[in-house]
Structures
1.
Amino acid sequence: MKARRLPLWLIGVDWRQKLETQRGAVLATELKNNANKLAKWTAQALLASADLMKLGYVSSVHPRDHFNHVILAVVGYKPREFAAQINLNTSNMWGIFKSIVDLCMKLNEGKYVLVKDPSKPQVRIYEVPADAFENDYMEEPLPEDDQVKPPAEDASGGEASAVPTDVEQKEATAEA
């Protein structure tokens, strides 16, 4: 098994602090490691004619807890500007899509998996059995006792919620 090499900005550096001070560097690293995902999300936002797309930086509350997460930051981008920033050629998207559809139309009837090679600009198509990916089991979350709990807010010292409750909204409209 080959050991995975950590990015330099993760070694000996609090990457959460790096996110606060050098968000562009964090985005550049994510773009390098996950260019396909970012391009896919940007293409989806463009196809949906969205005015704004938001990227969230999320971390596990605890490294061993796969279910509880904390949102570190959320950044909004205009899809066309973000596409230009990540060098996504929007006019080329439809050509690639057409090429994949043409290739799939030549295949025999069946079930296939389209896989993008993460390190190369290459896509592979594999034929799989008709019952592939069908299973009867369900993944269950950790029992509540085993989950890491977020720190409890002190009622006297905690910040007030910026979102009004239904009762507060009704009272505000009744007074107006």
Note: Residues 90-105 form the longest helix (16 residues).
2.
Amino acid sequence: MTQKDITFVADFLTEHFNEAPELYNRKGKYFNVERVGQYLKDEDDDLVSPPNTEGNQWFNFLKDSTHLKESPLLFPYYPEKSLHFVKRQMEGIIDQCLQKPADVIGRSVHQAVGMSLYKISQSEDSTPQLFKLPFLWNDKTSNLHYVLFTMLENSISKIHILRRHTDTSRSVSNGILAVEFGHFLNNSINESSDSRCYSCLDAHFYDDETVTVVLKESVQQEGKERVLAQLPLS
């Protein structure tokens, strides 16, 4: 330890653990509580050693500001309370702020369509993750909403595109379809059909007419080829 460390510890002990003979006859501890720990107690009692806010620039600023002093946007300060007390107060206010939007949004949302993507055995202990990379895109020009996703396990070479009209009362043709990459990237017809098979690593819309995908070769070997492809929706 350096001399600075020793001095720091000595100052801490001197400040917080001074002997107080006049308190010896009282039950319990007769030295000051550590000032940090009092803020972490989950209780509503006032702090034993509240902080000294004299000279605090923020408090002085609020005191001198006519508009901010009574502003409802500023969270009230409780200098005599612990952080747990302040946390509960803040959580209550946040819950109150979010309740109204939650009620309004909840009443306005309803299911437009439902479709089964896959089924799993009820006896399985843990549900496997079969649904991957959902990416959303809204075509404001055509009022269409798209969802890109892939299904793992037996269809890793496919990317699925779900298309819905933003007006739920209207439907569009080919509401959902799958694009299989498979072997279409083979350089020549002489290549073996099993030599070049690709699966989708990621997919995003590039613009309203184009989808960008990152593909990887499915063979089990080092140096797998990666392909960045742009596919027109048409």
Note: The longest strand covers residues 198-207.
3.
Amino acid sequence: DNSSEFIPKCRACRRQAREHSGDHHEGLSSDEELTPTEEDEFQKSKDNVLEDSRKIFEDVHADFCDIRKILLKFQEWKEKFPDSYCDAYISFCLPKLLNPLIRVHLISWNPLEQNFTELEEMPWFRAIEEFGDAENISESK
């Protein structure tokens, strides 16, 4: 079977070609390197997804597409009608309710970029954190 001899020779030829091209990055295989055409297609696809994501909530009232405003409504409910709030198991419902909103915010997030924003620094994360802190304070009373 000549195929087992052919594969290492092909790899060696590709490696040698990459090293001579000056565009070789040690640790990356040729399979991981994108051609300029592939990079352009990827960027166009990414731009289309980001553009579509901006349109998702354009026909939604601002009170219902902003995580901080949604959480304020739940905080008001909890303060005005604590029994009803508790009976509705809101703490179990909030993750499912906020999931689509958070996912839209994370579409463009890339933790592999050099200048990426930490999750803890994102406004929606801080809003949820503040809501959780407010809930813990009211429960401790």
Note: The mean pLDDT is 81.
